[in-house]
Amino acid sequence: MDELIDILKEIHPDVDYATATNLVDGKILDSFDIISLVSEIADKFDVVVSAEHMIPENFNSAQAIWDLIQKLEDEE
Amino acid sequence: MHNHVLQELKKTASNFPDKAAFCGEKSELTFRELDHAVDRIGTYILSCGIKKSPIVVYMEKSPEEVATFFGVIRAGSYYVPIDAEMPSGRIHLILENVKAPLLICDEDTAAKAADLGFTGKIVKYSEILSDETIDEAALTEVYNSSIDTDPLYIVFTSGSTGVPKGVVGCHRAVNDYIDQLSEVLGFSSETVFGNQTPLYLDACFKELFPTIRFGATTYFVPKALFMQPLKLVQFLNEHKINTVCWVVSALTIISKFNTFKTEIPKYLRTIAFGSEVFPIKQFRMWREALPEATFTNLYGPTEGTGMCCYYRVNRAFEDGEAIPIGRPFDNTDIILLDEDDHEVTKESGEQGEICIRGTSLTLGYMNNPEKTSEAFTRNPLQTGWPELIYRTGDIGRYNERGELMFVSRKDFQIKHMGHRIELGEIEVNAQMIDGITGAACIYDKAKDKIVLFYSGDKEEDAMKVLLKDSLPRYMVPNVTKKLDAIPLTSNGKTDRVTLAKSLE
Is the pLDDT of residue B1 over 80? Predict the structure, then answer.
């Protein structure tokens, strides 16, 4: 989880990722942020993110993103 | 012959009165409604006694914003679009530059507009439209007295000195652009555009002007869909969108995530792209998914009105190969000049600065004679009379097939996520922050990241946050690195080589 927070902090240092639950819906992360986030995640955690995972629900909070990573790791 | 960009609007409105012209997330306008709104806004502006003036349009991306652009043009004035998400520091610079007598906003931007310290009149779109009066006589008089070298817009691009530059465009160049582009891409009343590019630049001309000329339809693709590839393709299919002119990074959002395995944008027939290099692996996925579609690479700076070169892909490309920018549109000429202003011939295969000649040139930078005379210069190859060329700052060469290739930039301008950015503008904004003693910006191409090196008393995270106040989102550095001092070369310039190496 810390690794993920580091990636997120690099994108927007001023966001409190421990409490934020509207990262996408609140327009904190825009589509280009999400795309670069996903490529970092793919690199760091060695997972494959597909189109069906690319929905706001999976990116609205650090926890949701973390859950997605766990799910993708399990699938491998 | 087209002398005015709105010449076909009346005819289109009578041929297709109830057809949707522009469709946004919240509303849509038919051609009849659009025509009425345009006349109404034109009437309003004239009734304020405003003629041939810059008018600021500060609205959410919507069909109504397009109607406002056209309404300003109808009144013989020129629109200055401001992005609703632009930071206020940048808006101030733009307002200071253009000194407009009127600002048109909407319900969403009204509160922010009131806080801009704008000295002219502020009016809401809905207020203008609440009155039905149309002054045909006044509108006709303005129309008949307009000439095709009159301006119709000023759009602002990144400026290396920290101040954005306002590019002033005229009817003649836009009409020529739309003539050529429509011919190359084959627009008609059957065309259904899915617009991706923002309305505050000239990129959206590809959709805006052909839509009214041919009676086509433009859907504004919701921004939020550009992180949801499946939904994005479903949106394209739902509206039977057959034509897209997108930046490469928007197209690769679809191909990157194996979206084609689940869903194909099956109505797409015409795909134009540009502003960035298309990674061949991604490009191949597109071509395989849509073998019937045409793919056209477009190239051109804002100063040359929209695009000026095109390449229709007609062969396979190897990994690592670049797609050519091809050839100029008809009625535009490209010359390559070497450092001594001599012509670089096609056959030589040598590199030179890409310079544009022809009707497509814009009028120059608003209230900025210095920058204008640097970039819009006399054609050195022709000394008989004052002919202007625009020096793009892009380096190009011809390949063995005689196709123009983009090689690199002469300066520190970059393309990042489809946006044109002067690294100098980021540096100047960083240096303006209290306690910052030095700044140098590098583009890490391999990682597609803007890296800002700086010296001073601010922490790396704080630096990013502070820059968000003065820079648009796409210009905020992805990485900030604090140094004791910015390394300098022996002649006192920023040592970019050392900085770039530190990233490897």
Answer: no
Of A11, A34, A50, Cβ closest to residue B258: A50
C-alpha dist (Å) from residue A55 to A52, B26, B60, B148, B232: 7, 21, 24, 47, 11
Whole-angstrom CA distances from B145 to B35, B52, B148, B269, B363 are 20, 11, 10, 40, 19
Contact B157, B472 (CB under 8 A): no
Range of the domain at B88: 9-169
pLDDT digits (tens, 9 = 90+) for B482-499: 999 999 888 888 898 899
Relative orientation angle of helices B205-214 and B171-185, to the nearest 10 degrees = 80
ipTM: 0.91
Do residue B495 and residue B451 come from a single domain?
Answer: yes
Q: Are residues B355 and B266 in the same domain?
A: yes
Q: Are residues B376 and B268 in the same domain?
A: yes
Residues B355 and B484 in one domain: no
d(CA A67, CA B455): 38
Residue B4: inside a domain: no
Q: How many CB atoms lie within 10 A of CB B23?
A: 20
| Helix H or strand E encompassing B174 | helix B171-185
What does the pLDDT look like over B192-226, one tens digit per residue? Answer: 999 999 999 999 999 999 999 999 999 999 999 99
Buried b (16+ CB within 10 A) or exposed e, B244-271: bbbbbbbbbbbbbbebbeebebebbbbb
Fold of A2-75: 1.10.1200
Whether B227 sits inside 8 A of A50 (CB atoms) is no
Residues B399 and B444 in one domain: no
For an interface test with B, which of A14, A32, A34, A59 has the most B Cβ atoms less than 10 Å from its Cβ?
A32
Which run of H or E residues covers position B392?
Answer: strand B388-398
CATH code at position B152: 3.40.50.12780
pLDDT in tens, A10-65: 888 889 999 999 999 998 998 888 988 998 899 899 999 999 999 999 999 999 99
Any domain includes B382: yes
B231·A55 Cβ contact <8 A: yes
From B440, B443, B404, select the one nearest B421 (Cα to Cα).
B443
- Can you tell me whether residue B121 is helix, strand or coil? strand
Residue from B228, B236, B247, B480 to probe the interface with A (highest A Cβ count within 10 Å): B228
Q: What angle do CA B473, A61, B60 make, to 5 degrees?
A: 40
Domain end position, chosen among B138, B169, B200: B169
pLDDT above 80 (res A76): no
pLDDT at site B445: 86
Cβ neighbours around B110 below 10 Å, total: 17
Pairing of strands B54-59, B192-195: unpaired
CB contact under 8 A, A10 and B465: no
